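Record 1 of the preview.
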Amino acid sequence: MKFLSNISKVSIFTIFFLSNVFAQIDGATAHMTEALPKKEIGKELYNQYCASCHHEKRVGIDGPPLLPNNLKKYDEKDLASKIKDGFPQTLMPKYDFLSLYELHQIARYIKSPIDGVFLGI
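->
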């Protein structure tokens, strides 16, 4: 019985310690979360890092269009990974300095419907 009480003390300490560590990892992202709805975070990040090549409306300039129909084969996790690692055969750079949260917000945004763009489809 004494063994079980030691395990519970260790577990409680571990949970407390890890929760504090993870809470402090990315304070800037936490501020973004409080300030903007999730779709807006992805849009802001997209405009900051992606729009110069893919256009503000995601219809493409130097980079390909990022339309939901073109991205059906990718899930959010795959897109986040591709954004992080870049596309070696293209001019798309790596964005490995972005947090996992930021990468997923961009991926979620580019998979969302495009507002106000007539695609002629």
